[in-house]
Design a protein that fits this description.
19 helices, mainly alpha, 3% strand
C-alpha cells in the first residue's frame, strides 16, 4: 500500500482521502495487525464515497482481492434496511434478496460489475417489497392467503411501473402464497421519434461546447453517431483506438470504424491531454476514459449527467440512431461495426421496414443484370 501511494499522481491528495476518520484509524489498525486486512473490516465502516475510495485503493494496491464494489455496497445497503424491519418481514425479504437478487447478480463476469443503475434499482426493489409487506399488515393480510383481488387492489394504487412484480412472481413460483396472475410490466421502449437532422444538430452542439468535459463530449458523440451505449463507451480501453495513416479508428464491434474528422480531432486532443498523465496509482489500467476512483473507468452516471444538460437521453437516442443506421446499411454490417447483435439490428430493420432485409437478393439480381448486359 505504501509503494502504491508513492506512485500516485498526487500522493498528498491520496493521503488526504485516507486521513479522514474512521478511515485513518482503520488503516493504522490494519498496518499494526490490530484489525484483519479484509473486506469485512472495511464493511464495518459503513458506506460513503470516501470509504468506497478507500476500498478501491486497497484493491488497486493488491492489498485486498478484487470484488464487485457496487454489489458489495448493495448488500450492505439492503441488509441495513432489512435489519430495521419487523422479523416476519425481514425473513421473507432476506430469502428473496439472497436467492433471487444476489444469486443472479453474482453470476456476472468479474470484469462486468453491476452498474449504478442496477444497484439503485435493486435497492429500490427491497424498499418497495418492504412497503408492500407493510401494506399487507396494515390491511390485515398475510402472504399465504394473498389473493388476486388484494394484488389487483395494491397494483391499482401503487407501483405503476410494476417494480413489485418480480417479488410477486417469486412468491408464487416458490409456493409461499397461492397462485394468482402477476401483471407483466410493459416495455417502455417506444418507437424512435428523433429525426436524423436533430441528431446531427446535437453532434454540432457537442463538437462546439467546450464547457462540457471532453470525455463526456466524446462519449456523447459515440452515442449520437454510432449508437454506442454509455455503459459500453466508458469501458473502452486505449487499445481500442487505432491510428492507420491519417485515420483514427475505434473498435466498438468486431470491425474498427473510422471516425469522422471532427470527432477524430477531438479524440486526438483528449489523448494528447491525457497521454503524459500517469495513472492515479499503481500500474496503468488502460482505460480510455479514466475515472476518479483508483484503477476505475469513468462513471457512466457522471456522463449521463453531463449529457442531460444538452437534452441528450441515451436510451432514446440509441434507439433512434440504430433505426437510422439500418436504413442505410445491412443489419449484419450495423451489428459488425456497432457491437450489437445481428438480431437486434434486424429487429430495428424490420421495425423501420428497411429494404436491406433483401440485400443479398438485390445483390444477386444486380449481378445477373450486369452479366446480361455484357
Amino acid at each position: 500500500m505504501r509503494e502504491h501511494l508513492l506512485s500516485a499522481r498526487d500522493p498528498r491528495s491520496a493521503v488526504r482521502w485516507l486521513r479522514i476518520e474512521p478511515i485513518g484509524r482503520t488503516l493504522r489498525a490494519m498496518a499494526q495487525g490490530a484489525k484483519p486486512l479484509s473486506h469485512e473490516t472495511v464493511n464495518e465502516l459503513g458506506r460513503s464515497t470516501r470509504i468506497r475510495y478507500f476500498r478501491r485503493m486497497l484493491i488497486a494496491a493488491g492489498s485486498l482481492p478484487e470484488i464487485d464494489v457496487r454489489l458489495n455496497d448493495l448488500e450492505l445497503r439492503s441488509r441495513a434496511l432489512i435489519d430495521g424491519l419487523p422479523a416476519e418481514y425481514a425473513i421473507i425479504i432476506t430469502r428473496f434478496f439472497n436467492w433471487e437478487t444476489l444469486r443472479k447478480l453474482r453470476r456476472r463476469p468479474v470484469d462486468r460489475p453491476i452498474s449504478v443503475g442496477v444497484a439503485n434499482a435493486r435497492a429500490t426493489e427491497v424498499r418497495k417489497v418492504a412497503a408492500f409487506l407493510a401494506w399487507l399488515g396494515e390491511n390485515h393480510l398475510k402472504l399465504p392467503t394473498l389473493n388476486q383481488v388484494a394484488v389487483d387492489r395494491y397494483l391499482a394504487h401503487h407501483d405503476p411501473n410494476l417494480i413489485i412484480g418480480r417479488f410477486l412472481a417469486w412468491v408464487v413460483r416458490h409456493r409461499i402464497t397461492q397462485h394468482f396472475d402477476v401483471p407483466r410490466a410493459q416495455s417502455t421502449v417506444s418507437p424512435a421519434t428523433i429525426a436524423e437532422d436533430a441528431v446531427w444538430e446535437k453532434v454540432d452542439v457537442l463538437l462546439q461546447t467546450e464547457s462540457t468535459p471532453m470525455s463526456s463530449r466524446i462519449i456523447g458523440l459515440f452515442l449520437l453517431v454510432f449508437a454506442q451505449p454509455i455503459r459500453d463507451s466508458v469501458r473502452l480501453r486505449r487499445d481500442d483506438v487505432q491510428f492507420t495513416g491519417e485515420n483514427v479508428k475505434v473498435q466498438f464491434g468486431s470491425t474498427p470504424v473510422v471516425l469522422p474528422p471532427p470527432i477524430a480531432e477531438l479524440l486526438v486532443r483528449y489523448l494528447d491531454d491525457t497521454c503524459d498523465r500517469p495513472p492515479y496509482a499503481g500500474s496503468p489500467p488502460g482505460w480510455l476514459f479514466e475515472g476518479v476512483m483508483p484503477q476505475q473507468h469513468l462513471s457512466d452516471a457522471s456522463v449521463r449527467f453531463n449529457l442531460a444538460k444538452h437534452g441528450l437521453h441515451a436510451r432514446e437516442i440509441k434507439h433512434a440512431r440504430l433505426d437510422h443506421l439500418v436504413q442505410v446499411l445491412p443489419a449484419s454490417i450495423v451489428a459488425d461495426i456497432t457491437g450489437f447483435t445481428v438480431n437486434t439490428a434486424m429487429r430495428h430493420s424490420a421495425n423501420t421496414r428497411a429494404d436491406w432485409g433483401i440485400y443479398s437478393e438485390l445483390r444477386t439480381r444486380e449481378c445477373k443484370e450486369l452479366d446480361l448486359g455484357e
